[in-house]
Amino acid sequence: MVGEDLELLITAVVAADDERQARAACAGLLRLGGRVVRASDCSDEEPGCWSVTISSPSGERVARNVAAALARAVRSYVRGLGDDLPVPRVSCEPPTAWTVLDDPDRLDGLLPGAERLLVEAWVGGDPAHREEAPAEPAEPVGAERPTTRLLLRVDVETDRVERAEWQARAVASRVARNGKITRVAPLGHVLSVHVDLGSAETSAEVALQDAVTSLGRSGWTSVEWSEGSATTRWSAAAVPPSGITALGLTATPASAFVWTVPD
């Protein structure tokens, strides 16, 4: 990992009628470097909004301290957007660090119709855009593969739903490309964001192991089993004043899937 280049992913949410208009709104960001890797209609979550993601190389390289390099990459990019934009708090959980700019008035000069901007730095590249692994040998015709539904819960210390959702999306993107937030609920002093990560053609045990590996954290609890579902949890050693305090993952066979999430 030492010596690796970092990749920046900049996701802009803008008010737009269609993809052409959304891409045009991001022209100022593209002049800073990078290319559009994804554009999607997010009007089901926010009416009249499109999300555009730009990939750009970072001038930072990983030295001994991976977290410090990731955070510097995010701050350097935000500073390059203009003097009027203060750098908000950067959250860092290697292999990624991120921050959210959610002041439309200050963003509008660079990003017309801006709702908010998510800036992420990744070491090793965004998992959603890495080269796919070689295909496994085909199974015999008629063989049934297990299908598992994977659910994620992200507890965030914040009083703003938008900030909690962005934190959750950043975590979910390490596991699945198209995770969908199903609800946000208060849980004590935190907001608990529930994300449906979709289905995988694998067993619950393997799906859970793969998700934990993608998230790249240590300190997960032992897997607990209940009626065929597997659950594991992670909690911050010291509760931060803001940011992610806990995670929960549940893998359930699709045949037994119901809308439940880890407590």
UniProtKB/TrEMBL annotation:
<protein>
    <submittedName>
        <fullName>Uncharacterized protein</fullName>
    </submittedName>
</protein>
